[in-house]
């Protein structure tokens, strides 16, 4: 894992581009201002940055860009709270603070030779997108790539063209579902878990990575394990309240784990028991 | 972002109230000068500028709705304001004058005034949110300067203000004050009351009397039980909750429960 | 503190002030017991002889009352609401600030505390055990917290053996007291006519050396030792000495959580007085001129609403899940993080809970056994 920039202060970064992905979701492309800091910045898929909005505060956001693409750091964000609403109003040239990357990403290096199954829900697709970039750049090292994404409403789906594009690649399967479809919805209407039965992969030689609502991840995990996916090949990315990002402030504790430091990516066995209880 | 020179237009309106929350603005001292640099105060009767029907970005509203004229005026203000922010216990919970909601006000008026027909007063004193949509509420009696600045800063930054729903205890402990309820047995409302005052009363060695209204997850049942343990009777407990923020639902319910206990 | 009796000195009662004077002469801001709002607090000692005598504190769930010690000792009180925690892990602390120019460019800079050398006289074995846990958290290998480190490094700790435990004390059962064993610069055990004094660090040894104490007699040491044993035996509360992790984590849906939630005020007093709790929030305070903002951390509590905030969702919306989070972290998952329980037996959360919730009682109810066992 890469050495993070640490607890603060952040580094200044400039908004290079912002794309409105849906009425509430947007992507910020950021560039660290300091040359040396920019050169030193590396992240692993699944890690996150703390983005700082002047005078308001910080939010943890996963990095969604291609890890090989140096110099530009992408974050896809939903405008919901004070900081994210403020970030949504930024435009090219505006300044933010950035520190990171933090946490433990997806165990991609150990999973060579495996089929890769990504199961995501809602904006959980963002931390998985850098995995797709990673796998596509090293296509020969992995087996099948199965991309499964679920959304509540059809209009919540972002990156439609990208899903279409990935679906046309060899050895790649794309399955998308919306709980509520629309007249122009070409994909499945129903739950993500319905799609798992359609997914084509060899469970004995696959790794599954999940990110999304906890109920969805639990249901997907049960389904995948029923198909004989080894428990050690099942990973999920957790979300908890992160203020400091370095395992100090205590808000993101999930049992004994500090999600910011020990996660956000966990092996299934590490979180299975507590996921069954509301309130952790 | 930092270079914006357009100053937001701000109005401060008064309804039924004591003016104490407006004083929170005036008592800002040097910060008031900074404030005047960054916002345009277009209506603030207590400070000078008068233009009650001006179009504004933010209208701060002090006081409760308690007269027929208030009913009409709050609607006009809503129409003219992009954001409307009630400030203080009167505006957020009806204030101390809402104690009359529970009694026959007309009879009181008849007893007190020689020309009761000259008094135009609604039967109930109600918070602003009971009449129009509000964008944020600042609780407190009166609100504090730092609260006002926090809201203005958020407005200038284009974000929602931070809503502090923590209990007074959190501020009390950060300041290192020993808990007066534990060390002296005084019935402190801090454990059910919203932070924002900086634990002013416990810092002076007395009990919080709940002037910031109910905090989030205010366990008034448990606190009432503690008050009983400290020797308070049902009437005294009812009074603790039926005070400045009597109409705030959590306190209203707690007072009713205490009264039910008293009547038993 | 009695492992090397040959190194123990004896500080006659009249010379306690000379210890304080020595520390002041070395540049320390000296803090010792004082009374505020009916409680013993650590406050600055204006003069070397400002430590009050004869204070005692009677403690019970939700209750703390000052009383007089019939023997007029200096340290016959068990503890007050706070000791070391606020001095190392400050309740509010600026971490960094950012300046913004008219073009919107941001310049970030770290803010480090300007901390005086501080000596605290009268900390207890439980406080030292708690400090060791805070050290483990904030000074973690390779990731030390600069602000904590700065404050911590400048502390001088004069510990005192507890001879008069409060009814809320349970350090004997957690293995953290009542006699200090490690983590102090100087440790004192108060006898009728003075103090058995031992150094626990080079700094402490240098101070004691300058006081030219005569060696403590074997009898004085034995009296002090016995006094510690008696104080341990006098404790009426306890937690099971075994690791409670599995016992608690297997009872996450126990009805007792609902029951305690009816009493818990979710006020966070327990967290604030707990010497091991480390949660803090980060906040921004922008200046009104729009040109700078201060990024600070403040003590926060798992009983607050914001603690469980997620993007558009709260993982712990009710008091039941917040109390459960606190207790299971303190006594169960703390083991995963630090290899021991997070309770050092100071009993503050019991005394300073305005609702008088007693964690030993809750544990007993949750694990279906008597707390005295």
Count of discrete structural domains of chain B: 2
Mean pLDDT value of chain C:
95
Give the CA-based shape of chain C: globular
The main β sheet of chain C shows up as: 8 strands, mixed
Describe the largest sheet of chain B.
Answer: 4 strands, parallel
What is the spatial order of strands in the main beta sheet of chain C? 3-2-8-9-10-11-1-12
How many whole angstroms does the radius of gyration of chain B measure?
20 Å
SSE ordering of chain B: EHHEEHEHHHHHHHHH
Helix content of chain C: 25-40%
Which band does the percent of strand residues of chain B land in? 5-15%
The count of strands of chain C amounts to 16
CATH architecture term of the largest domain in chain B: 3-Layer(aba) Sandwich
Number of strands of chain B: 4
Mean pLDDT of chain B comes to 93
CATH class of the largest domain in chain B: Alpha Beta
Low-confidence stretches of chain C: none
Q: Oligomeric state of the chains? A: heterotrimer
- Number of DSSP helices of chain B? 12
State the low-pLDDT regions of chain B, or none.
Answer: none
Amino-to-carboxy terminus distance of chain B: 62 Å
Structural class of chain C: alpha+beta
Question: How are the secondary structure elements laid out?
Answer:
The complex is a heterotrimer of chains A (280), B (264) and C (373).
Chain A: E1 11-20, E2 25-32, H1 35-40, E3 48-53, E4 57-62, E5 73-78, H2 82-88, E6 95-102, E7 115-121, H3 125-137, E8 145-153, H4 160-167, E9 172-180, E10 188-189, H5 192-196, E11 206-211, H6 214-226, E12 234-237, E13 253-254, E14 257-258, H7 259-262, E15 265-267, H8 268-275
Parallel strand pairs in A: 7-8, 7-11, 8-9, 9-10, 11-12
Antiparallel strand pairs in A: 1-2, 1-6, 2-5, 3-4, 3-6, 12-15, 13-14
Chain B: E1 9-14, H1 20-26, H2 30-38, E2 40-44, E3 56-62, H3 68-80, E4 81-87, H4 89-93, H5 105-112, H6 145-157, H7 168-174, H8 180-184, H9 200-203, H10 220-229, H11 234-241, H12 249-263
Chain C: E1 9-12, H1 16-25, E2 29-36, E3 39-44, E4 55-60, E5 63-68, H2 85-88, E6 92-100, E7 106-110, E8 118-123, H3 125-138, H4 146-153, E9 155-160, H5 171-174, E10 186-191, E11 194-199, H6 202-210, E12 214-215, H7 218-233, H8 245-249, H9 255-263, H10 269-273, E13 280-286, E14 292-299, E15 309-310, E16 313-314, H11 319-338, H12 348-351, H13 359-366
Parallel strand pairs in C: 2-8, 8-9, 9-10
Antiparallel strand pairs in C: 1-11, 1-12, 2-3, 4-5, 6-7, 6-14, 10-11, 13-14, 15-16
Helix pairs in contact in C: 9-11
């Amino acid at each position: 894992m890469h050495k993070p920039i640490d607890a603060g202060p952040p580094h200044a970064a400039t908004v290079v581009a912002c794309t409105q992905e849906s009425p509430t979701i947007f992507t910020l492309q950021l560039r660290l201002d300091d040359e040396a800091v920019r050169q030193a910045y590396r992240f692993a898929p699944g890690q996150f940055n703390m983005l700082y909005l002047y005078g308001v505060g910080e939010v943890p956001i996963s990095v969604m860009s291609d890890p090989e693409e140096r110099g530009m750091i992408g974050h896809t964000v939903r405008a919901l709270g004070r900081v994210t609403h403020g970030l949504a109003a930024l435009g090219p040239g505006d300044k933010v603070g950035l520190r990171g990357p933090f946490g433990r990403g997806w165990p991609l290096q150990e999973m060579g030779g495996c089929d890769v199954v990504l199961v995501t829900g809602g904006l959980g697709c963002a931390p998985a997108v850098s995995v797709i970039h990673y796998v596509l750049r090293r296509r020969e090292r992995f087996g099948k790539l199965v991309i499964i994404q679920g959304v509540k409403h059809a209009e919540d789906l972002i990156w439609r063209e990208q899903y279409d594009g990935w679906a046309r690649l060899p050895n790649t399967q794309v399955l998308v579902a919306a709980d509520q479809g629309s007249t122009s919805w070409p994909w499945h209407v129903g739950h993500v878990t319905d799609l798992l039965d359609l997914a084509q992969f060899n469970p004995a030689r696959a790794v599954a990575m999940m990110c999304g609502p906890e109920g969805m991840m639990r249901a997907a995990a049960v389904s995948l394990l029923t198909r004989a996916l080894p428990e050690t090949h099942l990973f999920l990315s957790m979300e908890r309240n992160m203020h400091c990002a370095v395992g100090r402030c205590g808000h993101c504790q999930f049992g004994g784990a500090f999600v910011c430091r020990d996660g956000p990516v966990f092996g299934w066995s590490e979180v299975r028991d507590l996921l069954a209880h509301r309130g952790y | 972002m930092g270079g914006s020179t357009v100053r937001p237009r701000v109005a401060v309106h008064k309804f039924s109230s004591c003016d104490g929350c407006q004083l929170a603005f005036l008592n800002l001292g040097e910060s008031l000068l900074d404030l005047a640099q960054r916002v345009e105060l277009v209506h603030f009767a207590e400070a000078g500028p008068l233009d009650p029907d001006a179009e504004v970005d933010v209208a701060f509203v002090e006081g409760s709705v308690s007269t027929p004229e208030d009913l009409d005026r709050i609607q006009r203000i809503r129409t003219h304001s992009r954001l409307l922010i009630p400030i203080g216990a009167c505006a957020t919970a009806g204030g101390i004058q809402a104690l009359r909601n529970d009694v026959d006000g007309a009879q009181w008026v008849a007893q007190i005034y020689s020309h009761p027909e000259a008094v135009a007063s609604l039967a109930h004193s109600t918070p602003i949110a009971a009449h129009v949509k509000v964008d944020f509420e600042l609780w407190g009696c009166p609100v504090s300067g730092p609260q006002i600045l926090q809201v203005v800063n958020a407005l200038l930054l284009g974000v929602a203000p931070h809503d502090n729903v923590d209990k007074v205890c959190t501020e009390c402990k950060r300041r290192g004050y020993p808990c007066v309820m534990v060390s002296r047995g005084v019935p402190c409302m801090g454990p059910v009351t919203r932070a924002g005052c900086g634990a002013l009363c416990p810092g002076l060695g007395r009990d919080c009397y709940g002037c910031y209204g109910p905090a989030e997850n205010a366990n008034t049942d448990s606190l009432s039980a503690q008050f009983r343990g400290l020797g308070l009777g049902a009437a005294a407990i009812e009074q603790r909750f039926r005070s400045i923020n009597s109409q705030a639902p959590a306190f209203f319910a707690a007072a009713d429960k205490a009264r039910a206990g008293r009547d038993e | 503190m009695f492992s090397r009796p040959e190194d123990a000195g004896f500080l006659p009662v009249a010379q306690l002030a000379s210890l304080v004077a020595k520390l002041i002469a070395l540049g320390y801001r000296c803090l010792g017991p004082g009374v505020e709002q009916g409680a013993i607090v650590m406050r600055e000692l204006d003069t070397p002889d400002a430590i009050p005598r004869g204070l005692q504190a009677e403690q019970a769930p939700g209750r703390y009352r000052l009383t007089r010690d019939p023997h007029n000792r200096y340290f016959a009180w068990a503890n007050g609401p706070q000791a070391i925690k606020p001095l190392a892990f400050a309740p509010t602390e600026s971490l960094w600030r950012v300046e913004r120019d008219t073009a919107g460019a941001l310049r970030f800079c770290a803010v480090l505390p300007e901390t005086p050398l501080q000596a605290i006289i009268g900390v207890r074995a439980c406080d030292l055990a708690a400090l060791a846990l805070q050290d483990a958290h904030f000074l973690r290998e390779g990731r030390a917290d600069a602000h904590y480190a700065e404050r911590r490094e400048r502390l001088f700790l004069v510990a005192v053996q507890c001879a008069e435990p409060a009814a809320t004390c349970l350090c004997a059962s957690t293995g953290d007291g009542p006699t200090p064993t490690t983590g102090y610069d100087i440790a004192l055990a108060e006898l009728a006519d003075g103090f058995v004094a031992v150094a626990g660090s080079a700094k402490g040894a240098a101070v004691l050396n300058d006081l030219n104490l005569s060696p403590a007699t074997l009898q004085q040491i034995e009296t002090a030792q016995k006094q510690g044993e008696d104080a341990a035996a006098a404790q009426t509360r306890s937690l099971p000495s075994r690791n409670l992790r599995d016992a608690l984590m297997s009872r996450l849906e126990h009805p007792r959580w609902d029951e305690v939630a009816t009493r818990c005020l979710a006020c966070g007093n327990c967290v604030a007085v707990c010497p091991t709790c480390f949660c803090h929030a980060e906040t921004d305070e922008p200046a009104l001129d729009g040109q700078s903002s201060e990024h600070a951390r403040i003590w926060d509590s798992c009983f607050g609403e914001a603690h469980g905030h997620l993007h558009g969702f709260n993982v712990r919306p009710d008091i039941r899940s917040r109390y459960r989070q606190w207790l299971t972290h303190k006594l169960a998952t703390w083991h995963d993080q630090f290899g021991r329980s997070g309770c050092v037996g100071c009993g503050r959360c019991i005394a300073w809970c305005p609702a008088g919730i007693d964690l030993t009682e809750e544990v007993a109810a949750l694990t279906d056994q008597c707390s005295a066992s």
